[in-house]
Amino acid sequence: MKGLFCVLVAFSLVALPGPTPAATVPAGWPPGIASSTGFARVGRGIAQEPGFPKDGSTIEKADYIFSRMDAVATTYNLKAGSGWPLDQAIIKLYRSLGDTFPSKSDPEFAESLKSGYGTGNCAEWSYAFDEILNAAGVQSTVVFGDNYRAPGHSETFWGTDTALYVTETDADGNISRRIYDVFQAALKSGTHQPTATTLKSWDDLPMTDADLTASERAAGRKSWLSIIGKKYVKLAKTEKLLDNSVSVALTVEVLDSETDKPLASAKVTLYKPGKFPGTAIASKSTGANGEAVFSQQAVGQAKVAGAARVGATLKGFTPTVQDVAAALLLQQGKRYVVYLKPTAATLAGTWTLSTGCSYAGGGTDPNKMHKLTGPLKIERASNGSYSGRFGEGAAMGGNVESASLAGEIATLNLHPTFYSEDPKPGGQDDFNNGHGWASRLQLHGKLSSDAHEITGTVTHNGPKPDCDFTMTRE
User: What per-residue confidence (pLDDT) applies to 426?
Assistant: First the structure.
């Protein structure tokens, strides 16, 4: 009868709407997390907070986001499951409903947390935190501790403990897998919600004894696996031992950080992590699509603690070497994107143009004034020349016929082709069929030291400036 009662109560709670959020939601966070991307939206909101270390290391970013999980819990009224029969019945019911009806399943694997019950076990909390991290640009891998080597997991509450890890690389190039166990931080708090104190006890833990740093060994620190009393670590998605996981081929895509365009002929090297940058396993050159593909065998040879490392070089760009998380090396068809930054400043990219100039003209009223302002998009060809468009959706616009950058001095030649109210062809955003001007507008300005702003003057039909302008890079 007790079991039947739990099942009946569980079914009744499934019909409840999502958990009621707090009256005040932090700026940039979603009002609720019931949608299919609810936790990802929370991650994007946290990444926009003033305290978020945008230029920090992966671990610094993960630490900050983990420290905000108490606010996530209180904002959306989320709690950790207790292991009691009713909790277990409700959480298992949500999981089984997702398995039985795929269209109703939550792609973030956190159904019971998003329900009116607002409660989840270690899997739900870990997948929710994984979504938050990934949305904020931090790669992580969900794992669980188990006492059995065979594939699979225990159905009992205390049989496993699910958490996730982020990789950290020390000054010598050694990789340590750092665990963030948000469920334990909630379970051990006394309120079933993580607190600032419990979060500090369950963040940035070495996953196994092999992940202990020299200073941690000297201090006698315990690994996460030792703390939870488990023998093995398994990948949550495969339920197989972490270090016995099968490798897949790896596609590395190299892009220009300024234009987001693929870079051909870049040299990409796959490294086995060790003393930086590591041992080179294989090298490839990118094709026209900016891609280099490494075989399953090469990836397997390069992995240490499930992770690997890639480097990319190309003349005219700053070389880079980056870690590739274990999770990416287990997903067939996944790409790892590497951005290379040009060594010299470039005009390519999307800008916002602001000027004090207005020009008369147009097919309906030739005396109507039109402000020269709006988006300005510049592309760079392989030969180094520039072209583009300006004024899309604005009062006037046209084509960027040419542009140059000599040191810090920028020059752009704009050919206006339309006014917004012109009849078609030649109306708003008609860049190719507009009536056009016989003369051109010239923008002469100075590029800021951080390459994000150009200020100068606009001239037209002579050396006397029409007005000042500012171009701000988006």
Answer: 59
Contact 178, 204 (CB under 8 A): yes
- What is the per-residue pLDDT across 329-374, written as a single tens digit (0 to 9) for each? 766 567 899 999 888 788 988 999 999 999 887 667 778 888 999 9
The Cα 33–Cα 132 span in angstroms is 11
Burial of 220 (0-12, 13-18, 19+ CB in 10 A): exposed
Amino acid (one-letter) located at 49: E
Q: Report the residue count for the chain.
A: 474
pLDDT in tens, 210-260: 778 778 888 999 999 999 999 999 999 999 988 645 556 789 999 988 778
- Report how far residue 307's alpha carbon sits from residue 300's, in angstroms, rounded to the nearest whole number: 10
| HEC letters along 257-322 | CCCCCECCCCEEEEEECCCCCCEEEEEEECCCCCEEEECHHHHHHHCECCEEEEEEECCCEECEEE
Beta-carbon contacts of residue 33 (< 8 Å; ≥ 6 apart): 18, 19, 21, 39, 41, 42, 76, 113, 114
pTM of the model: 0.55
Dig out the tokens for 147 from the structure: 């006492």
Nearest CA-CA partner of 264 in 335, 312, 308: 312
- Cα 310 to Cα 86, 319, 423: the distances in Å are 48, 11, 53
- Six-digit token pair at 43? 């991650």
Q: Give the confidence band of 11 by pLDDT, cuts at 50, 70, 90.
A: very low
The yes-or-no verdict on residue 307 having pLDDT over 70 is: yes
Delineate the domains of the chain, giving CATH numbers in brackets. 2-243 (no CATH), 246-342 (2.60.40.1120), 349-473 (2.40.128)
- The span from the CA of 233 to the CA of 287, in Å, is 38
Token output for 293: 């593909």
Task: Write b or e for each residue in 44-62: b if 16 or more Cβ atoms lie within 10 A of its Cβ, otherwise e.
Answer: bbbbebeebeeeeebbebb
Q: What is the dihedral of CA 58, 74, 43, 177, to 10 degrees?
A: 30
End-to-end CA distance of the chain: 63
**Residues 123-165: tens digit of each pLDDT:** 999 999 999 999 999 999 999 999 998 999 887 888 999 999 9
Query: Residue 346's pLDDT is what?
Result: 85
Mean pLDDT of the chain: 86
CA atoms lying within 13 Å on the CB side of residue 382: 5
The answer to whether 77 touches 21, Cβ cutoff 8 Å, is yes
Q: Residue 145: beta bridge partners?
A: 161, 233
Among the listed residues 209, 74, 97, 91, the one whose alpha carbon sits nearest the alpha carbon of residue 157: 91
58 near 15, Cβ under 8 Å?
Answer: no
